[in-house]
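S1.2 Input.
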Amino acid sequence: MKKLVTYLVMLFCCLPLWAAHQPEFSTAGFFRMDHSGREVFSMNPAWRFYKGGLAGAEAKDFNDKDWTVVSLPHGIEYLPTEASGCINYQGESWYRKHFTPDVALKGKKLFLHFEAIMGKSKVFVNGKQLTEHFGGYLPVVVDVTEALDWNGDNVIAVWTDNSDDPSYPPGKAQDVLDYTYFGGIYRDCWLVAHNNIFITDPNYENEIAGGGLFVAFDKVSDVSAEVLLKIQVRNETKKAFTGVIEYELQQPDGKQVAFLNDKIRIKAGKAVTSSDKLLVKDPLLWSPSFPALYNLLVRIRDEEGNVIDGYRRRIGIRSIEFKGKDGFWLNGKPYEKPLIGANRHQDFAVVGNAVANSIHWRDAKKLKDTGMEVIRNAHCPQDPAFMDACDELGLFVIVNTPGWQFWNDAPEFAQHVYSDIRNLVRRDRNHPSVWLWEPILNETWYPADFAKNTNDIVHAEYPYPSCYCGSDSEARGHEVFPVLFTHPRNADAEWALKQSDDSKTYFTREWGDNVDDWNSHNSPSRVARNWGEQAMLVQAQHYASPSYPYTSYDALFQTSRQHMGGCLWHSFDHQRGYHPDPFYGGIMDVFRQPKFSYYMFMAQRLPVKTSLIAETGPMVFIAHEMTPFSGKDVVVYSNCDEVRLTYNKGGKTYTYKKDKNRKGMPSPVITFPDVYDFMIDKALSRERKQADVYLLAEGLIDGKVVATHKVTPARRPEKLLLWVDNEGTNLEANGSDFVTVVAAVADKQGNIKRLNNYFIKFHIEGEGRILGGSDVMANPAPVKWGTAPVLVQSTLKPGKIKVIASVLMEGSQMPISAELELESTPAVYPLLYNQSEAALISLTVTGKTDMQMSKSSAEREVERLQKEVNALTAYKSGVDNAFANSGAADCETLQNLYAAKIEENKDNLPYLKETISLLRRTGCQEIEAYFLASDYAYRQEPSAEAAVGLGKKAVKIKDYDTAIKYFDEAANLETDATSKADDYYMIALLLFEQNAYSKARQYCQKALEANPNYGNAYLLIGKMYAATSKSVFPNDGVLARAAYNAAIDKFEKAKQVDPSVAEEANTLISSYRAHLPSTEEIFMHPDLEKGKPFTVGGWIGERTTIR
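S1.3 Output.
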């Protein structure tokens, strides 16, 4: 029977689902548009790499055959998760890319666009130096049109150096820096090809408030808004050009809301700048709660109407005002609450700063899931993909220039800072997520005139409304800034604002850190996830509302409107140069695994489900693992009005009701005192009642349960679990994208064993590679707080990827291995690379080889079967006291022990009944002894237990009709309602196996008649609805997905009647909600209307409501 159930679980996991929301990312500052005359190619794959300096490596014919072949983004090296204290490489490195451009590109203008290269860099093409750049966070753009050889191989050579250098920002040596100078070409590289009449690149043109496309807004209201447009077009032909600039503005649903074209004339070899204005009536205004993005389609047409150049930009219509004591205003209205968010360094485990675009999006998504509304880019301009994500998900961004506690009086240093400011404004000026520019150097004692210059430069580069800059309130030159960074007056007196100015608006750029001294760095905020629940509870309480005066979530919600909120230091754990320890103050670790603080933040979001891409709605989380070392108090985080906590089956229930008159954070930490007692767990466990031991939290709004969370103590480690942490995004087969795959040690029921010290080894098959090896403790990986993550990167070929995880030191009693299969999808952008070079990209890990760590499928199956037997525990009874009481019995031994005895006692009905009961309680219901005892007992006296045994025997040989007959008989004979429901449910599973969906539902309904709280029956009905929706609507994908509403109804009902299935129900709800028709699809479909009834036809025949 277990095999059947396992098969059905796997089947449901593999049900065809419509893809979840997939983010899109800009390239070189734009989104490509079909038939625009402009093409973009990813140059990321297949670069030759050398760590170190080499004379002459820029030459086209330099011998690089012994160099490693890598793909971008690339950070020079893989690093351990504990990579602070300057263990990373600093120095020179070389990259060389061999490629042959398509002959179709000949005659086009060609630009290489590096999103960033760390440190100092020089770019050569075919031996000729085309540019030199200082600074590691902004674009390096190179015109390569005249440098390419169209008759053979071309070589791009890039020299990089991330060594300490005080001449350009940040300037500070890494060994005294609070973050790390990871190196390399750590962001994307694009080749942009277009005609010789083209929209320019603002970072290449180097014109104040010029170059490219500039979009700003004026007179913004709910009634109308002006979209201000400025564009530069260059003519590099030998003839004058006459044509039109065409702007088309589309709503998110594709509806055109404005159109304009303007005639232009450009002399040969010149550029012109054109300014225009669009009026939008009844605009959809961008905000964190409604991040509406319009598509602005820009086309340059010749006199015949042919499109010469063009692209798309996503824009958000919004206005921003900081009104001193009246606080922050968005879209002409005072913002209703403090803005709470976090700072972000982008570095990630193993790869440092060299992360894929999807990781940036997932970072933003995870932060938005908590209800955060503002992110401060610490302490540099971050990846364009992160800015794109913030636009889409609804996160304001404070955009920083590179700098941290360092000033150099040499004039060249300030000039480099000014250049950075100009280029970051030019890069990010069209993002609706930009809330505030921070052009000054973080925590730096710079001259007052420098501060004024930075503010002036921003306004020169952005001469339109909604442009504001911020500065530290105590810094030199702060008087010129409208927004000042400080701590509120109700916080620590040492840091709190001393004197306010009604003309200024205040914000806390960093809050939460609380070190003993600036050398030791001990702090209640700095907690590694694997330090366990007590440490994480302290961190969460410190961030929420400490017992001492300090800037906290609670304190920031008790300020006047003049103090607008603050950004936590920090969102994620990150590496540092000047200290041996990483910064552990993140609400997630370096792999983005959550700590308890993450859920505390999540509890502050509104308990209202909205149409945001990010997670919204009610939540409840128990911050307690029920270990022998867990405290008696149980802490719960929830945004619900009421929380009900139940300790153990039939045990005591505790209730918390939110004080709606309390001022401060929306949802204070909930502590239920003196609840948990390990000795109670022990007593129930000794009575074989482990299933009765749990903590169940239910969140209620208006008296209805809207969220649940259940925690059960983890028992003996039996198996590994594997899952993908990808927020529903695809793994793109571009050789650069990667996902986090997490292994966990779990008991038989799947409860994660938080307290263990195993190492997990990973093996991969198919179109993927594991990033990092044993030399950086990436693979095998240590288990920390129950989990061991690994990074899986795609190859250049779409396909299936299998990940296998095993404990490092295997034995007959060790947890069983786990397998996971995922699939990469084709690359979104065309990839430009040399096939022979790409073939040299390594697919293996460093250290112990992947082959040595791998197992054949046969070996894994033998392991599974052997451990399945070994995992069974003995059931102590009086049948064979001497043996059973030893605690050593397993199914194989019990088979050997009872097979002969059953034959000897085949006419002894009491003996047979006792043996059946014993084997059922030990879980040994697939051995011949169990079947034999059931058969002999049934012949003498048909009973429910004997019929069940014969039913399971029939299942084992796949005689499902016979099995159904015996289970039906068992249900009719059964006097216990719970067992009767189990029998009917088994029939439903078997009918489902035979695709008899309607009859399977009938038996689920019989199970519910016997036991109305049988949650699994509702789950099965819902799963069948989801599995067959496409057959009900074979020609309408939108209606097929609309049918998921009926499935979700059943999942909701399951968790309502049976809290024990709430976790699975919530997972299913989350999965299928992600695939419901979008608001736009519902609006466009004639048969659907949000909030209205909808009948799902076919065999389902259910009436539901469109969500």
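S1.4 Remarks. Confidence is low (pLDDT under 50) at residues 1-19, 845-852, 868-888.
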